[in-house]
Every structure is written in C-alpha cells, then in structure tokens.
Amino acid sequence: MPPRTVTFRAATAAAVIALGATLLAASPQAGAAAAEPAPVTDYCQGQCDDILPPGENGNATLVEILGNKAFGTHPAHSDDQLDRYNGLVAGHTGLTDQKLTEFFNDASFGVPKDQVESVTSPRDDVTITRDKASGVPHIKGTTRYGTEFGAGFAAGQDRLWLMDLFRHIGRGELTSFAGGALANQGLEQQFWPQAPYTEADLEAQVEYIGTHEGARGEQAMADAQAYVDGINAYRDKSKNGRYFPGEYVLTGKIDAITNVGEIQPFKLTDLISIASVVGGQFGGGGGGEVTAALSLLAAQQKYGVAEGTRVWESFRQREDPEAVLTVHDGTSFPYAGKPDKARGTALPDSGSVTAEPLIHDRTGSAGTDRKTPVKAPAALKKAQGIYDDGVIPEGSLPGSGSGAQRRGMSNALLVSGEHTASGNPVAVFGPQTGYFAPQLMMLQELQGPGISARGVSFAGVGMYIQMGRGQDYAWSATSAAQDITDTYAVDLCEPDGSTPTKDSTHYLYRGTCTAMETLERTNSWTPTVADSTAKGSYRMQVRRTNYGIVTHRATVGGKPVAYTSLRSTYRHEADSIIGFQMLNDPSYVTDAASFQQAASHIDYAFNWFYADSRTAAFYNSGMNPVRAADVDPALPVRAERAYEWQGYDPAANTAAYTPFAEHPHSSGQDYYISWNNKQAKGYAAAGFGLSAVHRGDLLDQRVSKLVEQGGVTRASLTRAMAEAAVTDLRGEQLLPELLKVIRSQPVTDPELNSAVQQLESWRAAGSQRRESSPGSHAYTHADAVRIMDAWWPKLVEAEFRPGLGDDLYGALTAGLATDESPAASHGPSGAHSGSAFQYGWWGFVDKDLRQVLGRPVKGPLARTYCGGGDASACRDALLASLKQAVAEPATAVYPGDDNCKAGEQWCTDSIVHRPLGGIAQKAIHWQNRPTYQQVVEFPAHR
Question: Does the CA dihedral 140-146-150-151 come out positive or negative?
Fold first, then answer.
C-alpha cells in the first residue's frame, strides 16, 4: 500500500496538536512476563490462511479520530487487511497456492520472534503477543482464568466502544447511550422487541447455564466472568491512562479536558444482551407466519380456497425438488413439512390484522430527524455530527432497515480428499456479517488449559473462538434459518368475564384468563458533538405472554386474538456457549464425529462445516422444537394445549427438541457447498425463496466441475469462490431463458436489438460485475449491467403482476422482495453491504419461463404467468419492459447516496465499511463474499 500523504491546514493541525497535549495516549504498560505455556503443535504446517478487513484495531483515541477526519490518517492496524481483501477481485484469476498470502493472513499458530510487535501481560499468568503484519492478539495463558482474562483484555483493546454499543442495542437503550438519530431509534425499535428482557431475565439466563449444563456450564460461566474481568481491567486502565476510545468524549460520556465521566463496568448480563443481538441476527429462523397468512388469504380471495391454496403453495416452495442442496447424496431429513391435513391453523379474518404498537409517549425529536447542533469546541469541529445518521446507518446491519428480510449470510466450499491434489480435504469458508469499521467480529488466538484455537469471535462474547481453526482441524458456519420460530393466536379475554376486544390485555392460557406481562424501555437523549439530534424521548412497550411476544392483533372467526411470536432460543440466548467451548477444546474435538457432537450443542440455527486432514463434514444445529402432530409451521396456529410444542414449559421456554440424528448432517461427501441454501431433502424451507435458482448455484456448479476434473487445490477452490463473488446471478442463471424467449422472433427495433446484443455479450463473458482494470471504477460491460439492473424489477412485474393481480402480487412481494442485486439499495441487506442475490424472484422467473418455453419443470408454479402462458405475449411483455429499462438513465438506475453521486455504477455497488466509531474507510470493489474467510488444508493430524 503506498504511503499516505496529507496536507496539514495550519488551524486544524494546531487544534489537534493542542488537544493531543492533553489526550495523547501513552501505550498501556506491560505487566510482568508470564510463564511460557506448553508448546502447541500446529498441524496445518503453513496451509491455513484467513482475512478480516479492514483491520484488527477497532479502537481509536480522540486524537486519532480527529486525525482521521482532518487528514485521512488511520490508527495502526485499523486498515491493513483492506487492500489484500479487495485485491482478490483482480488477483484471483492467476491465483496459486503460493500467492494466497498476498490476499490472506498466515493463520499459523503463534508469532515468530522476528514478527513480534508487542507483548502485554495484564496478569502474570497470561501474555498478549501482537504480530507486526496485522496486530492480531495471540493470547497465551498458563491458567484458564488468565487465558480468558487476556481474551477480555484484548477485546477491550480492540473493540471497547463496539462492545458498549451492542450491549446497549441488546438492552434497547441505544438512543439514551449514543444519541437520538432516527437510525438509532429504528435500530433499537427493531431489535429490542425480538429479545426483550428484564434484568432478572438476563440474570436467570446466566444462572441457567451454570446450573443446567453440568461441569461445562460451570466452567463456561467462570470463563465468562474472567473475560468480563479482563474487559473491565482494560476499561479502567484506558480511562485512567487517557487512551480510551474517543467516541466516549464525542457522545458526552467523558470530558476531554478533566477526564471526568465514566465508562460503565461490564457485567455477565451484558454478554447475554450482546448474544441476543448476534444470535438473533444471524442464527434465527422461521417466523413471519402472519405475513404468510396474509398472502395466502390474498390468493384464496382471488382464486377461491382450493385453487388459491394451490397457487400459494407453489410460490411458498417448502420442498422444491429443483433447489440446490448441501447434502446432495439423496439423504432425507424430514422437518417442518406441510401436513396432509393441518390442525389448529388460525388464519385472520380479512382486513382485521393490525400491528402491535411499540412506541408511546413521544416527545421532542422522537420519530423525526430534527437537529439542533451543539456549539462544539474548535478542536472537535472535524468530528461534529459523525453519528447524525446513526451509529449504524439504517439498513447497514444485515436484516435491519425498512422491508428487511430474515438475514442469511455466509458461504462454504469444501472438497473431500479423494478429489484434491494432496489427498487431504480443502475448505474455503466464512461468515458474511456485513461490513463495518471496526468489524462486528475480531481475530484472536487463544492458547491455554483446555483451549487451543485461532479465528474470530463476535466482540463482547469472545471467550471462545466461534469460527476458526484448532490444532488439526478448522470449522465455520453459515446461517441456516430453519424454522425455530412459530406464531400462535391467543384468544383474548377480560378478567371480569366481559366481552374482549382486540385491545384486551388478558388472554386465555390453558383455560385461565391471564394478564399479559408488560415490558418497557423509556429512552431519552440530548444533542452531543457526535449526534446533533434534538432533545427527545419515547417509551417502548411490548406485551409478553406464555406463547411469546405479541406482534399483531386480529380477529379469527370474528373473535379477537393476539398473534405472538415464540422462538425456541428465547430465554436461551447464550446456552450455545457450551458448543463453542467444546469446539475450542482439543481434547474434545478429535475427528468429524466429535465435531458434529460439539456443533449439536449450539442452539442457534447454523450450518456447521469441518475439515481436517482426513474428512470434510457438515452438521446443522438449532433448537428445533418437536411440534404437535399435523400442525402447519408455515402459518399461525391456535394457542391451545393440543397445538403446543411437545413438552412445552413456558417458565423457562423449554420443550422437546428433535434429536441429533434428525438434523441434516453428513461426513465424507464428495463436496459441500452452502450459501444459505436448502440443507437437504425433506428439510422444509422456513420462508419463501429456496427455489430452482439460488445463489448457491453459483458455487455448486463451479465446485462440482472442479470435483469432476479432480486435483482440487486451495487456490482453485478459492478461485471458484472469488469468481462467484463477482458474478450476477440473474445474468448467469436467468438471462439465457430470457434471451431464448426474446430471440424466438427477430428483434426489429434497432435500439432493443442493440440492448439484447449487449446482454448477450455480457452473458458470454461470464455475467460479471467487475472492473475493466484495477482501479478503473468502471465495469467491463457497464451498459449491460445497467440494463439488467433497470430491467429486472420491471420484467418481474410485467411477467407476474397482470396474472396475479395487484393485491396478490403485493402480498407475495411483501413476503419476498423481487430483487437483491448489489445496486438495489432498497434490498433486504441494505446498500453497500456486499451480500447480494439471496432474496429475489429468481426461481419464480426461472420456472415460469421454462413453463412458457415448454421445458420440463419439477415442482412447477400452479399457473403460467408470463403472457398468460402464451410465448408470443410473454415475449411482448418482456420486450416492453426492456424498452422501459433501456430508456432509464444511469442517474435513475443509480440515484446516488451519501457515498456516491447519481449515475455512479461502480460506486453504487461498492462495499462501504460502515463506521461504528470515528474512523472511516475507503470504499472497495463489490464482492459477494464472506467478511471473515479461511482457506485451509491440513496435511497432518494428531
């Protein structure tokens, strides 16, 4: 990376230097050296690599923040993985095993002596060694407590402000902590209702782990306490030493001159709060049954009950025989399927559904974006308003923002040894968790009694490595999203026996009229240097029942009900700590089978992948409830004992769960791919979209071809991933069918014919969204990409809306957005977020066009929609929508935002690391790729 050059403006430089005289951080003092722990054998032998942009260092002092705002400078190790990550776009075509470290970190255990940058000993039983290349903390302890204390201390060094943000997000207190920006209001309003807890609830979860999980539970809570102790030790040292994150000054928590103020101590319940955000964000599944019911009703109203249900089921595609699978050997794992004759389904009366109100008692700027900037000291002017758009701009966090879908994320490619050049399995895998500065995760190595691993952990719950590598094995995960959340319709009642209404706050629980529990958060804020939002406040309120949180009110058969959402992992946000503890324990994980057992102790819905020198393996985790017979999990169900989860106890939200053998799992299959696609036959989709075309096809087709050829290497598997990462799913999978229909007759309009030729050339070149040359910021087939981006939403509407009608089309698109290209800033993952092509009508368009063309279709749509099934009329509809798309200027297709001017195609696609603190990063080339990624091949085993 070329050295940075900056031009100092005298006034700004003087202000920073003057403030620096007060605040410039002395480096934390190293303690006494710890005894050296026993050496650990690294069986990867230099063949494990990883990457986590932009950089390991996620803390910045006030001086460093002001320097970044004034001069563009960056703290050490805050951006040194960014260019390597970005470089793979251009560099993957010539990639070899020897060149991997040009784009990835060496993920070997330990730090060679000549690569040691610093050594810190916060206690005499642990050292934190940071390497020169990336500044990753390598934590080695001679005691278990010391190891975990060191992990907490390192987390404080690298993510103190981020951890503070997320414990407040989890507690529904973000606006009171960081400011009342409209995005902050939206974020806490979206996340707190999913996991609302009292302090007693959080404490009960801590106690539950310690008392219900045996010796491992006791150890886990001891490890967590040591971790919290380490965080607090760094919190105290950084505050007293004045090298704490500068955001505490900018948000008014600490006075820049006097150092008066406080960083609130961390406690065990904060870890539960953070876990609820992380787990709910990436490890949830199911839910949305009310929205599904509304689309079913719309179909029945249009076509009648029987035909409408048949039409709806063909779009719902619970078990699409054409869907790409992770376990592709034909093994079936039946779960959450459609019963032959459903019992207890509780569809709402038409027009009766209303959402449960969340916000009450607004004052001041609540619900608005009104600003009243404070008069900031001259030295802080450059940082004024850094949080005016929120600490996490709306839509940046996967699954957040208006119209957000259930988040998916992450991919994995694994090839078994019989198909590799070495005879050992090869894996390229990692989680897609969005792009932030700093990242939500942090890299670390943990070596201590009973712990030996390197990889990533979500900041604030980093007692153990959550995805990474052990001594002779590596593992990773993708979000699975199987159905672990159900919607119940609870009958409303009045305690005095009077007639209930939709507003009633009592409900029938097993025959007794029971009061709903009211949970509240009252938040208030005033303007600060960081967030200029005017003074305001509001109260958030949710109602909790024995069947979960109230989300909607309605009538069913004329009687008032409340719809509630019941998630199996509610009240069990951190129970998964046991599985992670096992994954970090070299004495527990010794092979693929023991790995699968460890993964089975993780309650959230994830697909887990494993590779050692002998075996590649897969296991799907999650607290899958055993439902009552013949209950339809895709729709709301009556809240009666006959339809409850088997063995359900609301006190601790426990039930019977499906056993290990019924979860999709496999060992030694020729290859595995996952990109949040369907796991296996019989494992019913929890929502719309697991259909004949899925982004998993971009991986499956490439990896299957490599396996067929044989001799797979780390580099060739990485190339397959990287090529898929810049490929437009619509261009590769759907454009051939679209062009087949259009080219069925000559295109006589010269302008349209030129557009079709451009699309054909793009498709022939691989349908990539890729720069013509590194740094050009212009795609090779820019016009074709623009045409496709403009055309896709128009062609979907032209193909389906006339046949479905406005109401049903609107109801179906409410359940599944039509598009999620990287340029679709309105998409479920938000703008500039990298992840693309998960949610969309790809499969619907594919099946419908094949039906028009008379090609075979397994699991067809109930009706053919394009042109009413007439090929000529379908062609006319597609050409008419294409003509509209061609006429749409680039400034309309790419309307611009805070990062890009209108019409800037490459910039609109680009990945932006959203600043969660005061340090901003440059935009990089779009890649549909894991945020943290490993490339591993173990040549040896214990």
Answer: positive
Q: How confident is the model at residue 402 (pLDDT cuts 50, 70, 90)?
A: very low
Q: Which two tokens stand for residue 910?
A: 């680009």
In whole angstroms, give the CA distance from residue 82 to residue 103: 9
Question: In the predicted model, what is the mean pLDDT of residues 141-152?
Answer: 98
Helix (H, G, I), strand (E, B) or coil at 459: coil
Class of residue 242 by CB neighbours under 10 A (exposed 0-12, middle 13-18, buried 19+): middle
| Residue 825, pLDDT score | 60
- Give the separation between CA 922 and CA 777, rounded to whole angstroms: 13
**Which of 455, 573, 560 is CA-nearest to residue 170?**
573
pLDDT more than 70, % of the chain: 94
Rounded to whole angstroms, the Cα distance separating 236 from 922 reads 32
What end-to-end distance do the CA atoms of the chain give, in Å? 39
Rounded distance between C-alpha atoms, residue 226 and residue 709, angstroms: 50
* Residues sharing a CB contact under 8 Å with residue 762, sequence separation 6 or more, in sequence order: 731, 735, 781, 784, 785, 788
**Chain centre to alpha carbon of residue 47:** 28
Query: Per this entry, what is the length of the chain?
Result: 942
HEC-encoded secondary structure of 48-114? EEEECCCCCCCCCCHHHHHHHHHHCCCCCCCCCCHHHHHHHHHHHHHCCHHHHHHCCEECCCCCCHH
Indicate the average pLDDT of the chain: 93
Give the separation between CA 432 and CA 411, rounded to whole angstroms: 7
Say whether 521 sits in a helix, a strand or coil.
Answer: strand
Question: Per the structure block, which two tokens stand in for 666?
Answer: 């496999």
Can you read off the two tokens belonging to residue 122? Answer: 């916060």
Q: How confident is the model at residue 16 (pLDDT cuts 50, 70, 90)?
A: very low
SS3 (DSSP) at 31: coil
The predicted-structure confidence for 351-377, as pLDDT tens digits, reads as follows: 999 999 999 999 999 999 999 999 999
Cα–Cα dist 154/151, whole Å: 5
pLDDT in tens, 529-546: 999 999 999 999 999 999
Range 805-815 average pLDDT: 96
By three-state DSSP, how is residue 885 classified? Answer: helix
Name which of 478, 486, 567, 483 is nearest 838 in CA terms. Answer: 478
Strands 616-621 and 665-667: antiparallel
3-state secondary structure of 537: strand
pLDDT for res 396: 62
- Residues 285/484, Cβ–Cβ less than 8 Å: yes
